[in-house]
Amino acid sequence: MEENYAIELSRHEHKPLQVNPIKHSQPMGAALAFMGIRNALPLMHASQGCASYTKVFYTRHFNEPIAIYNTSVSDITAVLDGGDYSILMAIENITKKNKNMKPELIGLHTTGLTETKGDDVRGVGMHIEIPYCFVNTPDFEGGMESGWALTVKALIEQHTEPTSQIKPSKLLLLPHVSMQPIEIEKIKELCTGFGFETYALPDLSTSLDGYLSEGQGKLGTGAISIEDIRALGDAVAVVTIGRSMENAAKALLEKNSEITHIHFDHLMGLEANDNFVAALMQIRQIDPPPLVKRWRGRLQDAMLDAHFLIGSSHFVVTGEPDMCVGICELLQSAGGTIDAVVATTYSKVLERIEAGAVFVGDLEDAKSYFTKTDLVISNFHAERLLHMDEKSHAGLMLRGFPNYEELGNQLKNDQLYEGSTYFLFEAANKLREIKHHG
Length: 438
Known about the structure:
five-stranded parallel β-sheet; 43% helix
């Protein structure tokens, strides 16, 4: 597999530009992460256009007001005024304009312009009275997944207090960027059912979740506060969901080496969730709640029911690496064949995927596989390509960013036994529609 991957990667690495890209920038991932912190003010150190694009992107995807601000840097002011001045003036102007706004954290993330200039985003924190977190997220490196992961790592490094104490019932989840608010909520509920005091970082389960609240859109409304982040060092275990989150967990272990790190590349399908539940059982020394066993049985039944359609079908999957590996392994557990996986950025987890082709690319690269596949699992932009291709009769199942076609993205659950069941039935029903109704 590693040799095949190297061949596929080299085939696309010298492409001079992306056509119909599936990749999104690191600052976008960082902005979303700060939205998952209670009363955080996500501040993009960038031009107004950069922040406006991100705001519109998330507004259309989640259909919710989006809390994001910018330092209004231009190529001229970047040179003449300096980074410190732009950041401090932005914070002063934002808080003056919104006198009732009381941010508990300023989350500053950089962009290509300010990174190229080399602004001292660390030093500016000395002049800010509000708790401050900075993260370097240039557009010219990584992608949305890495921007989210870097932000989580920065929050832990800069704010979690070192300790040698452990609370036996305290658990921290570090979810990857492609997980929806409802999915984080469901995983927290499962852990709470085992008697854990459960935290997630970031925690979008109360943010962008379709719930109208007072002051929505002005500050982040995540379920974890800066005080909670400071006190994360005494968790008995940290659970990383997604290969991109491992470095953030390592940062937490630097704060307290007694913490147990439990890693899962994803929580989709029977095997991954059996291992997850077994890990929770081992820590708490108790049996799982009855509903967990019932959903496990439902997933087994769904695998049998969906096997007749999925087992005879071919798939193309595009998106963030941590999302792709979960989708692929769940489909393969029901007999599906993965023709190609097109990822936004490189990650070692891609080498785990067994597929006809696995590579970093764009939708133009993916299009060549559309004619021979049955179902494409991709973002909203794949829809136009499928409609334009007269040779393709493949269906589209929307996953990842952005999804401008469907409502309720934030409440779509693909995780755990329950979400995996829903996913398999959705895929099977899409295939039935394609094969039996044209």
